[in-house]
Amino acid sequence: MPEIVRGRYAPSPTGTLHMGNLRTALLAWLFARSVSGEFILRIEDLDQPRMKPHATKQMIQDLQWLGLDWDEGPEGGPYAPYIQSERLEIYQNYLQQLQAAGLVYPCYCSRAEIQQAAAHLPPGIDGGARYPGTCRQLSDKQRRQYERQGRHPALRLRVADELTITFTDLLLGSQQQQVQQAVGDFILRRADGIFAYQLAVVVDDALMHLNQIVRGADLLSSTARQIVLYQLLGFPIPTFAHVPLIHNSQGQKLSKRIQSEGLVPLQVSNYTAAEVVGLLAHSCGLRDTPTEITAAQLADHYRQQPVTLLCDQLRTGSCT
Ligand code: GLU
Ligand code: ZN
């Protein structure tokens, strides 16, 4: 019997969900529900200083208002808790597993020092500086020196020099990344003690048995790093679909105001959820017209179609 699809939406409560976030949520939900799969909501609130009070509650209300539902989430489920700030011990355990394998080292560099050290190197992915490996071979003496200066280290994963990760994105096709060239040894725990997104997301997606990761295309460049961690931790690798973001400059199908603000202005103007879902579905090429349709109707529609239709339409439809 084929494995049941388990998908998720994993927002960070840093503010209001804007239309781009809501479209990603709708698509992630649709990818799961259109094949009668399960859907999970996880709250990614590790970076506590960036979190806004009440944002989680508001996000949940907005998703529910749109007609999206989930089988497991902050309310509970078999792999609870689904709130990252309540899972720190779990991340610590997996970090220790990597440490025990000799794959982790402390890095005392400041951001400015990394930029300086990488200045003569080609830039990494997304234009950022790749970590040039400064602290890879620090002696115990050098480490003690840094510690005496009161520096707190970040913890980095030692990435094999020649490691190239390939995977097939359901929408974007074959992808390849040489991880050292793209980012270098990457951070698992920041100097301020906060676990890195890359580690937490892999541990959670694996422990929650998620096998289908649908998220915004801004995270495409992270996927190779995550696959490195899946492999090192011995977890099965899920399928990935990175969906288009809403770009302000070319968003003809959704007005500027609608894009950048959340649901509130639409609700104030008496839009119904079906009208908003219709707009979102139209904006990414799933529907020819922006006419109203509920999320449930949209899922029903795709359940009766070949499973590839959703991907095909997203790939070929003019997405704004
Ligand atoms: N929490 C991340 C964000 O809000 C998404 C993580 C993911 O989907 O992998 O951007
Ligand atoms: Zn360093």
Automatic annotation (TrEMBL):
<feature type="binding site">
    <location>
        <position position="135"/>
    </location>
    <ligand>
        <name>Zn(2+)</name>
    </ligand>
</feature>
<keyword id="KW-0030">Aminoacyl-tRNA synthetase</keyword>
<keyword id="KW-0862">Zinc</keyword>
<feature type="binding site">
    <location>
        <position position="256"/>
    </location>
    <ligand>
        <name>ATP</name>
    </ligand>
</feature>
<feature type="binding site">
    <location>
        <position position="107"/>
    </location>
    <ligand>
        <name>Zn(2+)</name>
    </ligand>
</feature>
<feature type="binding site">
    <location>
        <position position="197"/>
    </location>
    <ligand>
        <name>L-glutamate</name>
    </ligand>
</feature>
<protein>
    <recommendedName>
        <fullName>Glutamyl-Q tRNA(Asp) synthetase</fullName>
        <ecNumber>6.1.1.-</ecNumber>
    </recommendedName>
</protein>
<dbReference type="InterPro" id="IPR049940">
    <property type="entry name" value="GluQ/Sye"/>
</dbReference>
<dbReference type="InterPro" id="IPR014729">
    <property type="entry name" value="Rossmann-like_a/b/a_fold"/>
</dbReference>
<feature type="binding site">
    <location>
        <begin position="8"/>
        <end position="12"/>
    </location>
    <ligand>
        <name>L-glutamate</name>
    </ligand>
</feature>
<comment type="function">
    <text>Catalyzes the tRNA-independent activation of glutamate in presence of ATP and the subsequent transfer of glutamate onto a tRNA(Asp). Glutamate is transferred on the 2-amino-5-(4,5-dihydroxy-2-cyclopenten-1-yl) moiety of the queuosine in the wobble position of the QUC anticodon.</text>
</comment>
<keyword id="KW-0648">Protein biosynthesis</keyword>
<feature type="binding site">
    <location>
        <position position="44"/>
    </location>
    <ligand>
        <name>L-glutamate</name>
    </ligand>
</feature>
<feature type="short sequence motif" description="'HIGH' region">
    <location>
        <begin position="11"/>
        <end position="21"/>
    </location>
</feature>
<feature type="binding site">
    <location>
        <position position="109"/>
    </location>
    <ligand>
        <name>Zn(2+)</name>
    </ligand>
</feature>
<feature type="binding site">
    <location>
        <position position="215"/>
    </location>
    <ligand>
        <name>L-glutamate</name>
    </ligand>
</feature>
<comment type="similarity">
    <text>Belongs to the class-I aminoacyl-tRNA synthetase family. GluQ subfamily.</text>
</comment>
<keyword id="KW-0479">Metal-binding</keyword>
<dbReference type="Pfam" id="PF00749">
    <property type="entry name" value="tRNA-synt_1c"/>
</dbReference>
<keyword id="KW-0547">Nucleotide-binding</keyword>
<dbReference type="InterPro" id="IPR022380">
    <property type="entry name" value="Glu-Q_tRNA(Asp)_Synthase"/>
</dbReference>
<dbReference type="InterPro" id="IPR000924">
    <property type="entry name" value="Glu/Gln-tRNA-synth"/>
</dbReference>
<dbReference type="InterPro" id="IPR020058">
    <property type="entry name" value="Glu/Gln-tRNA-synth_Ib_cat-dom"/>
</dbReference>
<keyword id="KW-0436">Ligase</keyword>
<keyword id="KW-0067">ATP-binding</keyword>
<feature type="short sequence motif" description="'KMSKS' region">
    <location>
        <begin position="253"/>
        <end position="257"/>
    </location>
</feature>
<feature type="binding site">
    <location>
        <position position="131"/>
    </location>
    <ligand>
        <name>Zn(2+)</name>
    </ligand>
</feature>
<dbReference type="InterPro" id="IPR001412">
    <property type="entry name" value="aa-tRNA-synth_I_CS"/>
</dbReference>
<feature type="domain" description="Glutamyl/glutaminyl-tRNA synthetase class Ib catalytic">
    <location>
        <begin position="5"/>
        <end position="259"/>
    </location>
</feature>
